[in-house]
Amino acid sequence: MRQTTAMKPEATLNQFQRRCARGYKMGRGRACETERETDRSLQPKRWPSAVCGAPHPPTQWTALAGLARHATTRGFTLPELLVTIAILGILLALAAPSLREILATSELRSLSIELTSTLEQARSEAIKRGGRVTVCPSANGTSCLTNVGDWRSGWIVFTDDTRTGTTASLDTGETVLRRFQGASSNIVTTGNLPYISFASDGTSRQLNGGFLAGTLRLCTTVPSIRDDERARLYTLNAMGRITVTKPSVSAACN
Q1: Tens of pLDDT along 46-61?
Q2: Could you list the residue ranges that cross the membrane (predicted)?
Q3: In a domain, 59, yes or no
Q4: What is the tens place of the pLDDT at every residue in 109-149?
Q5: Total structural domains within the chain
Q6: 49 lies in some domain
Q7: How far is residue 253's CA from residue 215's CA, in Å, rounded to a whole number?
């Protein structure tokens, strides 16, 4: 005679949970809930939230499956990368002219500030030292250029105790007070001042002692810049005063 062994409620519950989980995967989850509701032996005091019969197990499984799917999709595909590079190239091409204008305007402004500061220092040093101080264009920082109005390569400020001839020159024993070199090729200079020399009273003088006056122009060669930002005009009067203005391009750079 075959003896039948009664299964414990815990074993019955475990079997039901496994069967019900398979039922949810196959779309028969509602049958599991009906069976649990009719069979009290399958109703524990506290039904676990992560097993079959929880309020919305399919929703939980769907969320977990979505997370797993997103975790495997990382980085960019080759077409996406190529499209991104193409868009960046177009944006850079559109921004290049504006960037060039900004750089050219900034360069002209910086050069103008440097020249203004240099002339103010030269005049101040002449008054303080009680002697002649000269500013002349220079390409190497040790000698003066003789080209009238060509200040774009730079300049030097020096004590000019031994003045000879009509051309400014740095002689032996004279001290260089300041140097500036490295103006860009985008900057051109014109004018009628081969040098600027200050006497001990602060007036501007020629090397032979006569009063010195004239103009000096700084211009940028970038044509797309606004007219009132393309040039700086320096006007030197006989009293040694420098006036800086923004002239029209036709008057300053031609």
Answers
A1: 444 444 444 444 555 4
A2: 81-99
A3: no
A4: 888 899 999 999 999 999 999 999 999 999 888 888 887 77
A5: 1
A6: no
A7: 12
What letters, b where the CB count within 10 A reaches 16 and e where it falls short, cover 194-219? Answer: bbbbbbeeebbbebeeeebebbbbbb
Note down the domain range covering 207. Answer: 92-245
Q: Would you say residue 253 lies in a domain?
A: no
Residue 37 lies in a domain: no
pTM beyond cutoff 0.70: no
Instruction: Please name the amino acid found at residue 106.
Output: S
CATH of the domain at 241: 3.55.40.10
**Exposed, middle or buried by CB within 10 Å (0-12, 13-18, 19+), for 10?**
exposed
Residue 4 has which token pair?
């039948």
Full DSSP string of 65-88: HHHHHHHT--S--HHHHHHHHHHH
In the numeric block, which tokens belong to residue 57? 């197990």
- Cα dihedral sign, 254-241-155-114: negative
